[in-house]
């Protein structure tokens, strides 16, 4: 073990990031010459109790990646080594290309239980192979964006900045998480690579270690403010209000350093913010803003603001980084149609909607959302624009459709305004927003 | 956006996977010519309520990766683009090498609150830069292994297999998670790449979609069993006990397919297992085992076995894949010493242990663990073998020490036996296992 194990998954290996049964089932389809078209639908059956809606995120990116999935030579060699696969099948895998269609919701679309986020139409041996990876990819961004948007809503227009890279589950979560945060409306991130790669502003303050490495807090403040005019100083290492007084002194002596903000990271944030605000205002430093952090979630942010805490921005990490109150969503990728006929597993107490589908979000004449309709894909439904759109057609990615992923942030902000208020509430509980089945789907479901 | 965003983080970019303030503070240290040696200690202050111990995992791998961290040309260009850094500093970063020491616990060491998992001794501008990445890397494996070992304990010797790749937070979590699962004692994984890369047996059964794609469940069973003699058949797609009867018929007609196991994935697993066992035994198929899955956690496994459910192996995913009841551990990487003097942040109600440290686990004469002592690194403590050992010395990885990471699985199994029983209990609550401070550390802590 002289070489550290790499963190990377190379393109040619990505196809192996799957559950073994996807490969054994695919070999079985190959042996049985089962080549009819299948439709698989990606959805979740139940909303987590701590959520009133989820933001469907990652599905466009996932579909784009999956449409280019290949089994590289190394991957094939490794599969051969398992002894489970015939050489003929491995050769077939080497030539494997996704040639089907993938329909997706646009990035950032709010979704509810049983609504399709993505559907794959392809010969069954192609569609089956995508299952595990598409679920892994979509879940991450969907779970993280759906948590992050709640912090954004709680902050009522004040900037929320991601400080959570260290708390996230590994490297891919930390990097792609920032993409989800961007969609959710965060103002920035401390995560350098994530921010650079996914076009979200990179922010940072300072750590307690910087203060502690200096013999004197005041000297640490002064040095850092000189290096970075317009910076944010962390004032709670020893005594928060004493720290604020030191910032005020430095601003008196060297106003040109233009300290922009102070950061509170421990203690009673509401009380300390009030105390700090009073000191700063008294010193005529109304322009210095207050950033608060320290294990905050949306409920704490809401409470702080209700209590009138003069906090101007929030840094959040631990709770958001793993979506601690709902770290997993029970996504399903289910066969719903094969060879032109509906397929459904009979699960007592569970909804299983057969056939390829479409999703409609009805608006009233003021543009407000009044209810969703889950329908058959080809059913005539007079309910506005269909939300599932073909991103991949016969294996080819539609670049115009893909470009819509970049509008996720605007899409989220626009959509949230249009929902009834109870969809946006932070408290646990379900909203009354109606999701119904179309007549044809209703009929087919009761039949199957 | 014609190219899908890559999932990979290349070696030269990995150094950018950090919080911005690590880089701005490091530039400040560079500008201030602060080059004294610092010690940072990685620990957590509080055990999650749902855990009685954590398995320290990932720290040896992380230390090995960090000892080779480099700022590649692309990384430096991207940093230059932020406008925050002087060219002189960027040149210095280009030559940056970690030249310090990293002490770590061996992979798989059980740990309790306030115990150091890893300590870095290096010039402050080197030690500071590692913070965010080491926390991200160690947290993932520690959180996942600490959950997985609970499922292993609950199963009381029966194999537990990871089915959770689709539920984990992204690609890195899915791949490195298997490493943590191996350490924790799982018997196998369905995750092909994870299993191949981290040397854990790859297992798989079949999905409901395979059954549904066939017109008849019996024909699906027969075809799959012929393709894969000795396989596991999923019997709950339509009616579980009917499914079992079909398996029995196939075994009567074609005993050479040698079905090895059936899998139950829904319904009342305890009752269905009893019913299935009775049918199989009646048919003389005592050798066919029963695998159960379906959102299982350690408490459900324990209850099933207490109730006498004849289940021989468990497939687990959703709850384990994100460690749903404790998805995050509040790791701290704190400056504890700089320029030879202790450094501590004053946090009311929080323990902050100054100085470089060592951890001892005392044994009685029968080898059972009787208590831990957190001591100063250089203090003479008569309590057996020190657990923190130098993995990286003056920037060089010790290959012999690194090889100990491969023994994590055996280390975990051995250690668990040695703890008092209440450390292994699954119920929420703290064990009585004592963790104390050495006399010198106690003295220093009360002083600082």
Automatic annotation (TrEMBL), chains A, B:
Belongs to the NAPRTase family. It comes from the Bacteria. It catalyses: 5-phospho-alpha-D-ribose 1-diphosphate + nicotinate + ATP + H2O = nicotinate beta-D-ribonucleotide + ADP + phosphate + diphosphate. This is Nicotinate phosphoribosyltransferase. Residues 160-322 form the Nicotinate/nicotinamide phosphoribosyltransferase domain. Keywords: Glycosyltransferase, Ligase, Phosphoprotein, Pyridine nucleotide biosynthesis, Transferase. It comes from Halomonas gemina. GO terms for molecular function: glycosyltransferase activity; nicotinate phosphoribosyltransferase activity. Signal peptide: none annotated. Pathway: Cofactor biosynthesis; NAD(+) biosynthesis; nicotinate D-ribonucleotide from nicotinate: step 1/1. Catalyzes the first step in the biosynthesis of NAD from nicotinic acid, the ATP-dependent synthesis of beta-nicotinate D-ribonucleotide from nicotinate and 5-phospho-D-ribose 1-phosphate. Residues 16-138 form the Nicotinate phosphoribosyltransferase N-terminal domain. It holds the Pfam family NAPRTase_N. Its EC number is 6.3.4.21. Transiently phosphorylated on a His residue during the reaction cycle. Phosphorylation strongly increases the affinity for substrates and increases the rate of nicotinate D-ribonucleotide production. Dephosphorylation regenerates the low-affinity form of the enzyme, leading to product release.
